[in-house]
Design brief:
The protein is an alpha/beta fold and 288 residues long. The chain contains 7 helices and 17 strands. 38% of the residues are buried. The structure holds flavin-adenine dinucleotide. Residues 7-13, 30-33, 35-37, 39-40, 43, 45-46, 54, 76-77, 104-106, 109, 127-128, 131, 219, 222, 252-254, 259-262, 264 line the site of flavin-adenine dinucleotide.
Length: 288
């Protein structure tokens, strides 16, 4: 039986793994891909890097695991089951048993098939308000979304500008917000080198920038099926990163807050102390 299985090899998962290792606990890391880092074209606000692409940062993380000889497997988590004194972790390839789990599985930023999105992503269209909101200080911006994830991103966007228009992309919902809300179906993004205009089924609107907050953060479905309590679609944890399931911890983007590399790394570092205490407590109970 493993002591700790970490799901995810982004900043929070790798940071947790390395710090567990430094505390003489050798975890098993299971991850499916580079997730959000794969689409982060340039990270310029992380310590020590003037600019680094998300995928390069992710690969640095994997080589850090290799450097410390921390076991890591490229598999997809399908299910977690509670067993006596631990969990069964079921992936697409295998079943593992572990005393504790750290979910560092991030969030899923849903893409959209609106025409020309690919053309302007990183050129006036962004998927991350916390990352790019700064560039639109006091600008005229739009944000597209239609659920609680939209409200989360909107609350951050308001820190940068008050000139915000919300597009629900054809979804007829009542959003109790002060911003102008346009419920038209979006046809396309238009512009020259950079994004300039949103074209809908009944109008044309000009903006300096646009944020996409469609879909839901996280591996919500998976988390829900596991019986993990969520808060606004993020995993709910206490100050010790404990979920409602004993022995199951969560960190990084998956638990919400600042969706940033440094915060995810901090969570991964911090959770180790609590996982250690939990394992110690478990051993005392078993031995006693
Ligand atoms: C376009 C974009 C630009 C960004 N720019 C910046 C920036 O400039 N600065 C900054 O600080 N942050 C930026 N971010 C945010 C940053 O990428 C995240 O905050 C950070 O990656 C979160 O780390 P994490 O470890 O919590 O999750 P992630 O990095 O998302 O890692 C999640 C891990 O979980 C794994 N996983 C998920 N589900 C499963 C499963 N079922 N089975 C197995 N493994 C699974 C994934 O494969 C992945 O390894 C950006 C994000 C995006 C999308």
């Amino acid at each position: 039986m493993e002591e700790v299985i970490i799901i995810g090899a982004g900043p929070s998962g790798v940071s947790a793994a390395v710090n567990l290792y430094r505390n003489n606990i050798n975890p098993l890391v299971i991850y499916k891909d580079a997730s959000n880092l794969d689409i982060a074209s340039s990270i310029e606000n992380y310590y020590g890097f003037k600019s680094i692409s998300g995928i390069d940062l992710f690969n640095q993380g994997i080589s850090q695991l290799d450097f410390h000889k921390i076991k890591h497997l490229e598999e997809i988590l399908f299910e977690i089951k509670e067993i006596k004194d631990g969990f069964q972790v079921i992936t697409n390839k295998n079943t593992y048993e572990t005393r504790s789990i750290i979910l560092a599985n991030g969030i899923k930023r849903n893409k959209s098939d609106i025409k020309n999105l690919n053309l302007y992503e990183g050129r006036g269209i962004s998927f991350c308000v916390r990352c790019d909101g700064f560039f639109y200080k006091n600008s005229k911006v739009s944000i597209i979304g239609n659920n609680s994830y939209l409200l989360h991103e909107l609350s951050i966007l308001r820190e940068y500008t008050s000139d915000i228009t919300v597009f629900t992309d054809g979804v007829d919902i009542d959003l109790n917000i002060p911003e102008k809300v346009i419920k038209d179906k979006i046809i396309s993004f238009e512009g020259h080198t950079y994004f300039e205009t949103i074209k809908t089924n009944s109008g044309v609107y000009d903006f300096d920038g646009c944020f996409i907050a469609l879909g839901f953060p996280s591996n919500t479905t998976l988390n829900k099926t596991l019986g993990i309590e969520l808060d606004n679609n993020f995993i709910k944890v206490n100050e010790k990163y404990e979920t409602n399931m004993k022995g199951l911890f969560a960190v990084g983007d998956a638990i919400g807050g600042l969706l940033q590399v440094q915060k995810a790394s901090y969570d991964g570092y911090r959770v180790v102390e609590y996982v250690k205490s939990y394992l110690k407590e478990l051993k005392n109970i078993t031995n006693g």
